[in-house]
Specification:
427 residues; Rossmann fold; UDP N-Acetylglucosamine Acyltransferase, domain 1; seven-stranded mixed beta sheet; 9 helices
Length: 427
Amino acid sequence: MPVNVIIIGCGGHGRVIADIIKRSGDTVIGFLDDFNNSGEIYGYKILGKVKDCEKFKNKAAFIIGIGDNKIRKKIYENHPNIGYYTAIDKSAVISESAQIGAGTCIMPNAVVNSSSRIGIQCIINSAACVEHDNVLEGFVHISPNASLGGSVHVGEGTHVGISAAVKNNVSICGSCIIGAGAVIIRNIDKPGTYVGVPVHRLERKCDMRILVIAPHADDEVIGAGGLISRYVDEGHEVYVCIVTRGTEPLFDKAFMDKLRRETLESHSLLGVKKTFFLEFPSVMLENEKRYIVNGKIFDVIKEVDPVEVYIPHIGDMQKDHQIVAEASMVALRPKYESSLKRIYAYETLSETGWNIPNVQNEFIPDVYVDISNYIDAKISAMKKYESQLSDFPAARSIQAMEALAKYRGANVNMNAAEAFMLIRETK
């Protein structure tokens, strides 16, 4: 009996998968896509956004038709139990002893030979060859005409480029990008981008060091989570400074320990290079000596030597936000040798816009950062802050964050954006 399938992602890769499903005799009933969520494409209905998969999970199987390994993984992590379809083209040659993980797509004329194990949500692209006894972990992409010799191991999230060749018995760690036409003859045990014959690792130059200063854990993700993800993806180093921590008797120690774990998990997901915890008491910052607060923030700035710094808006309702903004500006005075070029203020839902309305308190953005490709990363990072989230219409809810990103994006004709106020720039 034919299987009904919904494809997540209506780009080129998704449309190729639609052809494979059709040739197999199963039925594509439509697409889900966050940026093209109505009408038709390629003769199929667009049924809604990615999150709508939960509404259809009892009516169809799903396959993620997106070539980017990171995006595929994020969607899977957000929706692990919707029932994933494995697409195998009729022209592919698959050994009876091979194991293929759920959600994997094997394209036309691909080969998967004896005893190979392919993980979940992988892509074996057109005419790629996976020889005997290979192990591919989840979310791997083997590009067209790439060849893997026998007993090769490929770690999670690695992308092997077009026509690349991997010698037998070689192991490639996770989170690598192997360039087109590259030849791998030795093990690769460090994540990164590898090109050439034989391959060598491209050492990405860190063009900028970015520092985000947050009064409380989660402010940094609410205000700049998309920017953090984008900057990390572009090869920059991002540092975060969390100024306060809740203390007893106002805050339960077990709760604060949980929040610390959530912070580190969120920052790991975003790729933050280092997190500084200054441990000043939350909601009691006004009782601390100003010169000590200023000095601790200055020590972080001196260590990082950032090119850009992001601080809370001085007009926020919460007193800790105001004090951190003032202390940051003291520490960032232009009286020392530094790499600093720009200072921005970010907005924090549930604090920005809630103070007494006047010229100083109003957040008036003049810089917008396109996070259309990073809103999912921002939301995933915020979901790690389980203890801080509430249900909509609470300001600190996933829906409110998504709405603000869309609103800020609509201000400047983008799908999603984060807004900032430029405080100072030197050229």
